[in-house]
Fold each of these.
Amino acid sequence: APFVFGFVAPSELRVRIFVDVDDNGQYDASDVPLEGIRVSLQGGDTIRTDRAGWVFFRGLNPNTYTVTLLVNDLPMGHVPTVPVTQTREVKEGEAVTLDVPVKAFRSISGRVYVDRNRNARFDGDPPLSGIAVCLDGEHRVETLEDGRFFFKEVAAGLHRLSLNCGEPLAGYLPLNATVQTVDVPPE
């Protein structure tokens, strides 16, 4: 009688977690992989992402699998743009990739003051309160009593910050640009 050896091609589920810098939902050269984020496979292992942002669940049988990103592992201000629990079907011999784009939110803050000694540093100078500051022409805040302003949950990327929302400030001459570009890094 002949001997018969049967084989099944192994399957795998790959999960990639990254800061989606260009906000297109796909991993590309400008994006930043996130290391050390735990991903759990329902009824299976929990693995941390490697430095390239990957988790590999290898040697799976063909089936439908549910994976969950443990959001507590994400750095402060990072929010997934897709559901944290997703289900994927993995067929025999197939490698299925699940991308998990994450948006990084930062803050921008500063101070508006009268620089009496013209040294470009706040060192006891009189603050200006109630002055409008605009971010990207859309978001507007006013300076507080101490001259400080604060924009929270700012996405990574280039932003335009303008004093008095681009209008001249009556009674004052600027010592530097009243419209500035701010590059908020993803990490």
Note: The chain is about 0% helix and 45% strand.
Amino acid sequence: GLAKLNRAGAPVPEWFGVPTEFFSAHVSKSSISGVLSTTLSELSELDLNEPASLKVVQAGAQKIKDAIIAEEPPPELRVAIEADLPKLGDGPFAVRSSMVGEDSKEHSFAGQLDSFLFQTGVDEVVDSIKRCWASAFGDRSIAYHLRANLPLDAIRVGVVTQRMIDGEVSGVMFTANPTNGHREQTLLTAAWGQGEGIVSGICNTDEIVWGHHGEEVSYRIVDKDLKLIRDPDSGRGTIEVDVVQDERKVRCLDESTVDLICAKGLEVANNFGSFQDIEWTVEKGKLYF
């Protein structure tokens, strides 16, 4: 998805992908593969309609995740990260999990895997990659696989490492309006802070409708009482904070910024040849998809 956005000329922060071969090499180690095969075999026999089954899934998932995190990653991974991380700048970095097959036409693993924001240095990035791998075997992911009749032994995870953007306002854009089916309208949602607050549902969002003729059709302001920001104490990860009173019930996007985001989104959708839903953020007046 990011590669397609790059080719479409979208404003994407610098990134590189960690191929699934590293994941496969890690989980094939004997200390992990034994736990993996035994536990997944037991879980595949479960009937998820039985209430007790979910507790068994939770316990099995934790056992697998603990095994993956406890083992040192392949040494080649550190070599690759040491070589490629400086190409993204000084940091911080976002380490983002991506299940192979995620958001395909048939299946979506959105929200089931972990990502790690505002990571600094090689050690933190390598550890976060390993934790991304482990999250593929979380209880929600395993339960989804079982309900969808997807093979548990075919799980593969790629990881994106990307320059972290400290967004002041973020949101999601749909280049066709999903609320009314209008294909000549873009629906934009926006709130203060990091995009994680929007996609996780923590933050209330303003809702803007923008016509493809190039003008804002409507802007609905909500009470934006919470936002997610970079943890000011550790500098790593995010925390939830209250929005100051003066910013709660006002627009978080001016009209020119709405035009900029929506016009660029429409350009990307036209390049793709299909309607898109796009996560975006703005840092110091600069737009990123």
Note: The two ends are 11 Å apart (CA to CA).
